[in-house]
Design a protein that fits this description.
Layout: E1 8-11, H1 15-24, H2 27-32, E2 34-36, E3 43-48, E4 72-77, E5 80-89, H3 115-138, H4 154-161, E6 172-176, H5 184-193, H6 199-206, E7 211-214, H7 216-227, H8 232-250, E8 254-257, E9 260-264, H9 266-275, E10 284-288, E11 293-296, E12 305-311, E13 316-329, E14 336-340
Parallel strand pairs: 2-11, 6-14, 7-9
Antiparallel strand pairs: 1-12, 3-4, 5-13, 7-10, 8-9, 10-14, 11-13, 12-13
Length: 342
């Protein structure tokens, strides 16, 4: 039951409010990413390195310029076309409690304008949102799964960044033991914030702009560490305050580590189990700066389309939604990951 059944059709920029607004203005998405809605085709995320080595002793008016320069690196965001097309047999709700929400007479199977049609419309938009999150984090163009091979997502790009030859784009990686012993998550977070972080990332962390995203098993392991501390009760009020705030605004559990929110991304556990835990492994965490991660779309593209309709010929209710999207990070030094090997 994941199909909109209200007869509507919107094209181009008309689709923006109906589909793109609830998708790309989702509170969780906006908390984690910088959303760009104006990328028509392909746009660089220009990364400018520090300008150093330019100060020297003054030796007169004939002095030659210094050799110091700033390194400019370009990473691109290029929204790709994607589509949802769902078809549902019209009599699927017969002999259920939802049958009362259908029409009567010759229009029995047409859900247009019914409360059931609105319910299914909401479910469809929610389903698109969940699928978009899945694609953003686990997209892989090399995958055989058509639901994941539209773009390369967060994990594919950050893992590739570990081996990047350019130090500006290189992502650091900490190895998590395959077996989560007591305090493994706590010790992993410590490494992410110390040996796993570049100096420039540590500066951003001190400014209070960081969070840690982790799999549910890592979150639970860290929670056990917190509960075993002698001063757990002292911190509990702050934990409850942070957890309530994050859960309300973003819909996930959270507890702090050194004042940094640790978010339980339990959907990761489900997806990792589906695609296979190996490469890079089942236990994962990312030291995350929201301003470093971008999602791009073209809000007013003519490709955008939304249509939901009942087909009398085939006695089916149908949904088609089209839009464009992509993900990329800007600076590798502003990201640090931790993964197990198995």
């Amino acid at each position: 039951m994941a199909i909109i059944t209200q007869t509507l059709e919107y094209n181009g920029n008309q689709t923006a409010d109906l589909i793109l607004k609830p998708l790309f203005q989702n509170p969780m998405l906006n908390a984690l990413f910088t959303i760009r809605e104006d990328i028509e085709y392909r746009e660089p995320l220009n990364v400018v390195g520090p300008l150093t080595g330019i100060l020297q002793k003054y030796t007169g008016c004939a002095q030659l310029p210094t050799t110091g320069n700033a390194t400019i690196t370009q990473r691109f965001i290029e929204p790709q076309k994607m589509q949802a097309f769902v078809q549902q047999c019209a009599d699927v709700f017969d002999q259920t409690i939802l049958e009362k929400a259908k029409k009567t007479g010759v229009d029995w199977n047409d859900l247009t304008g019914t409360s059931l049609g609105k319910l299914l419309e909401d479910l469809a938009v929610e389903g698109l949102t969940l699928d978009l999150f899945r694609l953003i984090f686990f997209g892989d163009k090399a995958s055989a799964n058509p639901q994941l091979n539209t773009i390369d997502g967060v994990w594919k790009k950050l893992l590739a960044g570990v081996a990047d030859a350019n130090p500006e784009n290189r992502v650091s990686r900490t190895v998590i033991p395959d077996t989560l012993a007591a305090n493994t998550a706590r010790d992993t977070f410590q490494k992410l914030l110390t040996t796993g972080s570049s100096n420039i990332l540590k500066q951003a962390i001190r400014k209070g702009k960081a969070m840690i995203l982790c799999t549910g098993d890592m979150f639970d392991n860290y929670l056990l560490s917190k509960e075993s501390q002698n001063n757990a009760g002292v911190e509990q009020a702050y934990i409850n305050e942070l957890n309530g705030m994050t859960t309300e605004n973003m819909g996930v559990e959270a507890i702090p580590y050194r004042g940094i929110p640790v978010l339980a991304m339990r959907d990761w556990d489900t997806e990792i189990a589906l695609i296979g835990g190996a490469n890079p492994g089942t236990h994962r965490a990312i030291l995350w700066l929201p301003g470093n991660h971008y999602i791009g779309t073209d809000k007013y593209s003519n490709f955008n389309k939304f249509k939901a309709w009942y087909s009398d010929d085939f006695d089916t209710n149908n949904l088609r939604a089209r839009f464009r999207g992509d993900y990329n990070y800007a600076i590798g030094q502003f990201a640090a990951i931790a993964t197990s090997n198995g």
